[in-house]
Structures are given as structure tokens and as C-alpha cells.
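Supplementary notes (optional reading)

For those who missed the lab, this is the record we used. Protein: Peptidoglycan/xylan/chitin deacetylase, PgdA/CDA1 family. Length: 281 residues.
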Amino acid sequence: MDMNYNCKTIKLNKNIIFIIICILVLYSFGFLLGYLYIEYKFIDKNSQNITSSKNEQLSDDSVLDLKENTNKDNNKVLCEDAYKKDGEKVAYITFDDGPSKKITPKILDILKERKIKATFFVLGQNIEENKEILKREYDEGHSIGNHSYSHEFGTIYNNLDAFKKEVEKTNMILEKTLGDDFKTRLFRFPGGSFENYKNKFKDYIKENNMIYIDWNALTGDAEGQNVSKEKLLDHLVKDVEGKEKIVILMHDAATKETTLEALPSVLDYLKNNGYIFKILK
């Protein structure tokens, strides 16, 4: 009888131990599942926060890009609208006869430092010698216009065919240098478009979906060599008096050292007198 009792006791104890082990295993498994669930929720929440943060950052970047693009668009004005009065004082800085190795890069440095854009009317023959400078003008957001190939009046205005060749050759050089996608509608006549004998050339420009523009203010840097920077500024001050919209003629040819010297004072004067700077398109 004692033997049977002991066997039953041992069996009962084994069952109890087995039950306890099962309970401990189940408890441990439940604890593990709970831990994993909490970890998953924590990771998922952080992931959402990171994604949200990235989306907010992307959204902020998109807003900045949009503002930058909007500012760029607002900075460009159709030639047809350049002189339209709307109460805003606008200065269009334009340079003719470049690019040149000696002057143009330094002008670009000044404009870049001051975050001002300009319009460059370039000569085809000068582009061929200064392609990288032209690319820099374009890459830095300046506007590019055609100013003929040679600037030789006797050649350009000899007849309509000669004029066409000057314009078309420079347009081809521009496209070859800046890419086939580059097109400019801007043209400036060497010497301006003021004379009646240029009417047939003006018609050609219009018929070929281009537009020409002269100027209504200048520094006088083409009226002599090495005109002092003080005289250049004085000339401009007199020219812009009382004008709301001004298209300013200057030159970045290799000999225009005093134009370079006068440029910071010219920009300061215009800014201090309420002008903002825009480019032509």
C-alpha cells in the first residue's frame, strides 16, 4: 500500500511540475509577444515621425524651390513690357560688345556678389574666343541677346543679305555653345535702331520672331576711351532723372576698364534711389 501511495505522489508531483513549467513557458511567451508588440509600435511611430519630418522637409524645400523659381520668373520681363509704367522703378542693366576675357569675368563677379542679373548683348566673333565666359553668363542666370557677329557697320548694314548672315551666324554660335535648346529672341542693333535706313533690317528681325531693344539711359562709356568712372556715373545720374523704367547701356569690351570701375557706384546709386534690377527676355 505504501508503495502504491508513493507512486501516486510521485506522479502527482510530476504533473504539478509539468503544469508549472507550462505556465512559466506560456507566461514567458506572452511576455515576449507583449515586448515585441511594444517595440513594433515604437518603431512604427518613429518611422511615421521620420517620414513626416522628411515630408515636411521636402515640402519646405519645394516651397523654397517654388519661391526661387517664382523670383527668377518675376526677374524676367518681355522687351515689349520693359517701359510699361506701373509705379515700380526698374533698371535693366545691359552690356554690349562682349564677352571679353579682360572685363566680362570681373563684371560677372560684381553682379554675383550683389545678386544682380543683367542682359548681355554678345558678338558672335567674341563668343568664339570666349565660350566659357558666355557659358558662365548663361549658367549664372543672366539674359543673352544677339548683337551681330562683327559689329562692323560697313558689313552689317551693307545690304539685307549681309545683315541676315550676321544675325544667323551669331544665333548658330550661341546654340552651338549653349546647346541646341538655347534660343534667344533678343537683338540689339550695333549703334541702335534709330536711323530710318535700318527699317528693312528691323522688319527682318520682326519677321523672324525676334525683338530689338535700344536704351533710354547710358553711362557714355562708348563716347571715348578711358572716360573716368566719375564722369560715367554723372552721365548716368542725369540720364535716369525722372524715369521710372530705365534700360541702361554699358559695354564689356576689352577696353572698357573704367566701365568696370564705375559699375559698383552705378549699382549703388540705382539701388539707393529705389530701383530694382530685372532682365529682358
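If you only remember one thing from this example: The chain is about 55% helix and 15% strand.
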